[in-house]
Design a protein that fits this description.
By secondary structure, the chain is mainly α. The chain has 11 helices and 7 strands. The protein starts with 16 loop residues before the first strand and ends in a 12-residue tail after the last strand. It binds CU-O-CU linkage (C2O). CU-O-CU linkage (C2O) binds next to α3, α7 and α8.
């Protein structure tokens, strides 16, 4: 029996999957769509003319930028589901990979990109194509997603942009939004701290998750997932556990069984503010790497060669490997530097 030497989805195997233990969902793309497409290998974009896309924090967005993003998202939401660039297909794509809808190549083991070392690279790929599609829909190849800079005291409230126009999602816990986000929210506790007290708790928590508790790659990146049934592992890294999971849970509507939309992975990417949330996680991956000097966080060929498929802005199916996404400059974007107050908030 062949054992794959990396993790990758077998695109002909998409099947129903569990969005919650009590909910069977089908997030698969329209029948045979991807299975019959011929993928090309990923190529780095040429940003020599346009320059890098610069991702900015949500609290510093100006009116023109918000108008651009609003227009791009409105167009994306108007595309039919048959179009892989459509918002619904983007949302479903996340669902397929977080519920195990695909089997791996040469195995009946499924793929889940949460709770293991594929978490950061997969979401980077996903946002990269999402961002390029948004830009191309408005003819702007410098368009960059914003990041919800929830680790910055200036940005610890739910973002204003998320409360307007196409960014609105009715399935959110609005009662939370007049409070400072609790980055270590456990879903049970109601508001325990207010204002500055919560800000300080968040800063100390960030220090812990990115510095003290994440000194080794496996602690930050998540457990090593290897191919096949025997390769399974479930152990999210520090930041994936929180603030990643906790912010998802804090945003989703508490009266929904899985705190949909944001609170459950199968539905999370239906909330337009999933993307700014993840852009911040993507940024924090690099902050961690720089602080600890881990430019090649994992030197393991299984991880480096694992690959996924995404449609690009030209409706071309692209095969992209983890090793392709370790340098954002090569991917054509950068994050604006923002305040890292938490760096001197060692608890
Ligand atoms: Cu793939 Cu925040 O989830």
């Amino acid at each position: 029996k062949t054992i794959a030497s990396e993790i990758s989805p077998n695109l002909t195997t998409c099947h129903d999957s569990y969005g919650r233990p009590d909910l069977l969902v089908n997030c698969c793309p329209p029948l045979s769509d991807e299975a019959s497409a011929v993928p090309v290998d990923y190529q780095f974009p040429d940003s020599s003319k346009s320059g890098l896309r610069v991702r900015r924090p949500v609290h510093l967005l100006d009116h023109d930028y918000v108008a651009k993003y609003t227009k791009a998202l409105t167009i994306m939401k108007s595309l039919p589901h048959s179009d892989p660039r459509s918002f619904s297909r983007q949302a479903q794509l996340h669902c397929t990979f977080c519920t195990g809808a695909y089997d791996q190549k040469h195995s009946s083991a499924s793929i889940d990109i949460h709770g293991n070392w594929l978490f950061f690279p997969f979401h980077r790929m996903y946002l990269h194509f999402h961002e390029r599609i948004l830009g191309s829909l408005i003819g702007d190849d410098t368009f960059a997603l914003p990041f919800w800079n929830w680790d910055n005291p200036e940005s610890m409230l739910f973002p204003d942009i998320c409360l307007e126009g196409p960014f609105v999602d009715s399935q959110r816990e609005f009662t939370h939004f007049k409070h400072v986000v609790n980055l270590n929210y456990d879903g049970e506790m109601e508001i325990v701290a207010e204002g500055q007290e919560q800000v300080d708790a968040n800063l100390a928590f960030m220090y812990n998750q990115v510095i003290s508790a994440a000194k080794k790659p496996e602690l930050f990146m998540g457990c090593p997932l290897y191919p096949g049934e025997d390769g399974f592992c479930n152990g999210p890294g520090t930041v994936e556990k929180a603030p990643h999971n906790t912010v998802h849970y804090w945003v989703g509507l508490a009266s929904n069984p899985g705190r949909e939309n944001m609170g459950a992975f199968y539905s999370a990417a239906w909330d337009p503010c999933f993307y700014p949330h993840h852009a911040n996680l993507d940024r924090i991956w690099d902050v961690w790497r720089d602080l600890h000097g881990m430019h090649l966080p994992i030197n393991d060929t299984v991880w480096l060669n694992s690959y996924f498929y995404f449609y690009d802005e030209n409706l071309q199916l692209v095969k992209i490997k983890v090793s392709d996404v370790l340098n954002t400059t090569k991917l054509g974007y950068t994050n604006e530097k923002t305040d890292l107050t938490w760096l001197n908030r060692r608890p």
